[in-house]
Each structure stands twice: as C-alpha cells, then as structure tokens.
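Narrative of accomplishments. A recurring question from our advisory board has been how the design workflow behaves on a single, concrete structure rather than in aggregate. To address it, we present the structure tokens for one chain from the evaluation set, followed by the sequence designed for it. No filtering or post-editing was applied between the two.
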C-alpha cells in the first residue's frame, strides 16, 4: 500500500456476542501528534482498492442469520421492534436526505444490525443493515473533499457491492466484488472474472490465510462505472487508482507475488494513465505511478544498477511527469512527495557511511521547473504551506522558506505539517501550534494534539481529550478518552467508563453534543436515533 501515516480513527462494529475494532490508514498528518512521524505523505491523493482493505466490515455473531434487506432487522430484534425501527427510518429519511445534499458530507455509521451511512447531523440516511460500507476518511481528506455523494454510496450485501442513493434506496444493484466512491463521475470497481471465481476466496475468507489473500488479488480485475452502473472502462487492469485532474493511474500486466516485499503485490506490471473514457493518454511504462496532484505526478522506474539486494523500493528511482508524460527533473531521486505551494520534497539516499542514528536518507525540494532549489540535506522535510516548510536536522526541527533560509531562531523537538494555516509543534514534551511565520499562536501546554480540522483541533491533557479553536480557547471541554478531527460537522470520540449514559464510541457535533452512538452506551443501549 501507499506509505501513509496512520491515526487512531476507528470504526467499531458490535454484535450480540462480538465486539471488534478496526483501524485503517488515513491521510498523512491527520493522526494525533503524540509521537515522531514523517508526515511528508500529507496530500497523497489516491488509494488503490485492493480486497476491500478500506471497507468497514462487520463481524457476525456466531449463529446469527444474515440481515434481510430491511432496516434494523438483525438478530435480536422482534418483529414489532423491526417494524417500529423501519417506520422511524422512513419518517426521518427525507429530512436526512435534504440535509446531506446541503452539507455535502456523509459518515460511516454502525449498529448491532450492520453498517450504514450518517448525514452531518448524525441521522442515518442509509440504514445500518449492510455487511460493509466504505469509510470515506480512509482515503484521506483530499479524496474525501472530492467525493460525489449524490452519485452513489457503496454498500455490500451478500458478498457483492452496489450503490445507494441519498434517499437510502438501492440505486445500483450489488454486482461487484469491490467498489469505491464516485470522483469525476467515475467509480472504481473490482470484478473477479467467472473463469477465475472458483479459485478466489470470498471476501470474508481471504484473511484466513496469506495464500487466500493472494488468490483473491490475482483474480481481481479493475475498471470504472458511471453513475448508472454501466462500465465506461471495462475491468481489465491489475490495479487502478481514483481519478484526479481528469486521469487515473492503472497497472497493465504483471502478476501478484507471494513475496510481501513486492510493492502493491504486483511484479513486472507497468503503470500508465487513462482518461475518463478509458483511453490510454500516458503509455504504461512506469514501475509505479502516483495520482496527479497540482499538475504533476510522481512516477518510479526500476533502477537495474542498484547494488542492494533489497527488493522493490531501493531499486526504484523517482521523478515527476506532467500531463503530457514529460519527465520534469534532469536527475532521478530515491523518493518524492506531492507538489504543494509550488515545491515538492525529494529524497536522496546516501551510499556512503552515515552518522549514528542517521538513516542515510536526506530530503530537499524541487520547484515546478524541475530544479533542485534546496539541496538534499534534511533528515525529514514536509510540504510547503504559505511559503514555509518544516524540516529536521539531527533531531531538531525548524521552519524554512523557499530559499532554504530559517524562519525565526527557534528550534523544536517536532513540527507537524500545516493544517488550516497552523502546524503542531513539540517542545519539552508539550505541544502547541505555530503559524507559517514562526509565531507561536497556541502555547505548548498539551500532552498530545491533532491537527486543525474545520477550525477546531483535538487536544489532550493527562488522559482526557477536548477541542480548542484557533485562538487556543477550549470550546469543547476535555472529557473524552480519545478524539478524532472534525469532518462534515462531526467528530468521533470515545466516552469514559463513568459517562452517565455509558461508555463507548459516538459522534459529537461542534457544540460537543452526542448526535449518534457508534457502540455501547446511550439511552436504550445503542439507540438507532438519538433524541
């Protein structure tokens, strides 16, 4: 998978007998800033859908029957309860749909009966009866901001993926083995051809053994559908990415290898780019290709002259291409990150002796003309924002400008990527926030923090989390045992064991009010709708 940071964001599925927590990768820099992390992958704008790794998958209680396609009809509900829940859903559905269309955001919701989708007010717009739904934030916030919600919400029913409309009704029948959200009018889907299906495990079985996972990967082919569910690009690719800037990276040929070192699990495949109609606009000639971002895409070619015996990444050399497929830089690098603010971090690996505790990997920056304007001299380097970037040398962090000059005299133990104009910094084991000019806007007084999202940042003091605004004012008291960033007006939090309504995971709004429980607690034990 793409190198991305992970956060503590969780989706919790709960049945009568089983409680399961699953953590998924998120866009770099989104997670809590309680430890050292590179963060340079902030802004990677794609994800490859392989085997539903990003899906919110429910585990069924032993002996429980499959839920019928009706709201709240899981094991443990009587007929009268199921009818009452269905009526409640129908009463609220129209209002929820209009709110979702207005806000343009949808969330992943969980109930003992299965998975569904919530609107920005915490109301289910798709009933929680499905085996799995796609967690939007798994793809990172750059993708989340571009999801076309009204064109379809992917759900899994009886081992097949289809799409719902914002009214909660089935829009595209479940007929795909994998499915993703719509972007640029296209949704990526995976299909196992009939002649390979008998050799491929079902989705719930591939984790039983490594061999089963590889068999399923080898069998899958990827294509794209339109909002009517019709294939505009037939499923013929070994791997594929979301559309961005009018094109999508796809892998032609190759095979899935048993060797876990094989990047994306594919050996000898070649990556290129197609347009929205499936035409190959940049020929497949790269060992790997990333999505376009701000006019350029990072691409890798195999370095056959590499002396190392380590497979894959150490044998690759990276560069950038434009939309015509023209190579940007005169020299290749050992790794690259996306362009932001007219600059992109690039990495050069030292082949000689390195200092103690030095990885031998040094980062610098190239501009949009392909010139290495800041030499590879930093042990870590994050993307530019408003003319400033965070860099690390011998364990100390500082801000630099686009000429490589220091901004201010202060150095820090850590500086994270800029989010909404502020970057979290660490000094003497405490965290605060500073601006791109090096001004400490919020003093370092917290034990852990998350980046700013929708004007608020999660902060921890001791064992409890709350939220502060850009002025450092605590707007939601520190009372949660964990807290995620806000998106679409909601944030997922964990409630302590002594919470009056019971502990568990829940969504809160910007006022700190619980609008929907995800697991445990709550009036009536995990209510379908909150009052």
């Amino acid at each position: 998978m793409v190198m991305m940071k992970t956060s503590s964001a969780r989706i919790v599925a709960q049945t009568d007998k089983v409680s399961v927590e699953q953590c998924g990768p998120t866009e770099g820099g989104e997670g809590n800033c309680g430890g050292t992390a590179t963060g340079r992958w902030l802004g990677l704008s794609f994800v490859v859908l392989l085997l539903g790794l990003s899906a919110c998958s429910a585990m069924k209680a032993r002996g429980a029957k499959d839920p019928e396609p009706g709201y709240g009809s899981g094991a443990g509900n009587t007929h009268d309860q199921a009818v009452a829940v269905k009526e409640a859903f129908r009463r609220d559905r129209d209002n929820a749909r209009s709110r979702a269309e207005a806000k343009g955001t949808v969330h992943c919701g969980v109930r003992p009966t299965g998975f569904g989708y919530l609107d920005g007010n915490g109301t289910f717009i798709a009933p929680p009866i499905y085996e799995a739904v796609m967690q939007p934030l798994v793809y990172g916030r750059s993708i989340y901001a571009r999801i076309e919600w009204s064109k379809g919400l992917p759900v899994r029913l009886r081992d097949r993926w289809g799409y719902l409309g914002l009214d909660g009704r089935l829009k595209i029948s479940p007929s795909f083995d994998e499915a993703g959200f719509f972007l640029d009018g296209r949704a990526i889907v995976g299909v196992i051809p009939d002649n390979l299906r008998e050799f491929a495990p079902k989705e719930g079985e591939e984790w039983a053994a490594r061999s089963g996972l590889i068999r399923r990967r080898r069998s899958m082919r990827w294509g794209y559908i339109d909002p009517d569910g019709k294939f505009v690009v037939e499923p013929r690719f070994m791997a594929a990415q979301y559309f961005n800037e009018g094109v999508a990276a796809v892998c032609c040929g190759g095979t899935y290898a048993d060797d876990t070192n094989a990047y994306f699990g594919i050996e000898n495949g070649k990556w290129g780019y197609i347009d929205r109609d499936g035409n190959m606009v940049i020929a497949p000639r790269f060992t790997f290709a990333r999505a376009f971002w701000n006019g350029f895409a990072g691409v890798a070619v195999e370095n056959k002259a590499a002396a190392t015996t380590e497979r894959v990444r150490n044998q690759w050399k990276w560069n950038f291409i434009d939309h015509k497929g023209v190579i940007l830089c005169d020299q290749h690098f050992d790794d690259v990150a996306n362009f932001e603010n007219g600059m992109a971090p690039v990495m050069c690996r030292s082949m000689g002796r390195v200092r103690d505790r030095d990885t031998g990997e040094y980062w610098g920056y190239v501009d949009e003309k392909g010139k290495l304007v800041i030499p590879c001299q930093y042990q870590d380097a994050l993307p530019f924002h408003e003319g400033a970037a965070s860099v690390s040398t011998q364990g100390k962090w500082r801000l630099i400008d686009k000429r490589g000059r220091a901004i201010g005299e202060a150095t820090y133990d850590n500086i994270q990527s800029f989010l909404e104009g502020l970057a979290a910094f660490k000094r003497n084991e405490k965290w605060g926030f500073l601006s791109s000019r090096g001004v400490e806007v919020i003093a370092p007084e917290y034990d852990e923090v998350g980046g700013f999202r929708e004007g608020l940042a999660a902060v921890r003091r001791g064992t409890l989390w709350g939220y502060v605004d850009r002025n450092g004012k605590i707007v939601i008291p520190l009372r949660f045992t964990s807290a995620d960033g806000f998106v679409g007006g909601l944030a997922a939090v964990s409630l302590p064991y002594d919470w009056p309504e019971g502990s568990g995971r829940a969504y809160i709004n910007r006022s700190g009010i619980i609008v929907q429980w995800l697991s445990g607690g709550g009036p009536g034990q995990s209510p379908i709708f909150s009052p």
